[in-house]
Design brief:
Layout lengths: L8 H54 L1 E7 L6 E6 L7 E7 L4 E5 L7 E5 L1 E10 L4 E9 L6 E5 L5 E3 L1
Parallel strand pairs: 1-9
Antiparallel strand pairs: 1-2, 2-3, 3-4, 4-5, 6-7, 7-8
C-alpha cells in the first residue's frame, strides 16, 4: 500500500488557526508600541510649546515698570508697562478660555499673538507687596499631565493689585 502525499484538511485548518493567533497577538503588540510612540511624541511637543511660552512670559514680566493684575473670572490677565525701550507701550498677557490660548498683546490696540494653544486651564496670580512682588503664571495643556508654571520677580515693579 502506498502512503498518500500532501496535507490533510485537518492539518491545514490547524495551521491557519495557529497563524491567526500569531497575527492577532503581533498586531496587538505593534498597536501598543505605536500608541506609546505617539503619546511620547505628543508629550514632547507639548513640553516644548510650554517651555517656549514660559520663556517668553519670563522675559516679558522681568522688566515691567507697573502692572495691573486681574486674576478673577474666566479670563485672567496681566496688563503692564515694560521697562525695555524695544517693548514700549502697555502690553497685556491674557488667557482666553473660549479659544483655549494664552496671548500677548504688544501695545494698546495691537493684535494679540498666541504664545501657546491647547490650554485647558490657566491661573495668574501675585504675591507680596507693591514693591516686592512675585507674579505667577500656571497653565495646563490638553492631553498632557501636570502643570507648567513660572514665578517671576520683576526687577522694578510697582503694581496695582
Amino acid at each position: 500500500m502506498r502512503t498518500p502525499n500532501g496535507f490533510t484538511l485537518i492539518e491545514i485548518i490547524c495551521t491557519m488557526v495557529i497563524l491567526g493567533f500569531i497575527a492577532v497577538f503581533g498586531a496587538m503588540f505593534l498597536a501598543t508600541g505605536m500608541r506609546g510612540a505617539l503619546t511620547s511624541r505628543l508629550a514632547e511637543e507639548n513640553g516644548q510649546k510650554a517651555q517656549i511660552a514660559l520663556e517668553r512670559i519670563g522675559l516679558e514680566l522681568r522688566d515691567i515698570n507697573g502692572a495691573t493684575v486681574v486674576t478673577t473670572g474666566a479670563t485672567p490677565y496681566i496688563r503692564y508697562t515694560s521697562g525695555q525701550t524695544k517693548l514700549s507701550g502697555t502690553r497685556t498677557l491674557a488667557y482666553d478660555n473660549a479659544a483655549k490660548i494664552i496671548t500677548l498683546t504688544p501695545a494698546s490696540g495691537g493684535s494679540a499673538y498666541t504664545l501657546v494653544d491647547g490650554v485647558s486651564a490657566c491661573a495668574m496670580s501675585f504675591s507680596g507687596t507693591s514693591y516686592s512682588t512675585t507674579l505667577n503664571v500656571t497653565f495646563t495643556l490638553d492631553n498632557t499631565p501636570g502643570d507648567f508654571s513660572i514665578s517671576v520677580k520683576p526687577r522694578q515693579a510697582a503694581l496695582s493689585l
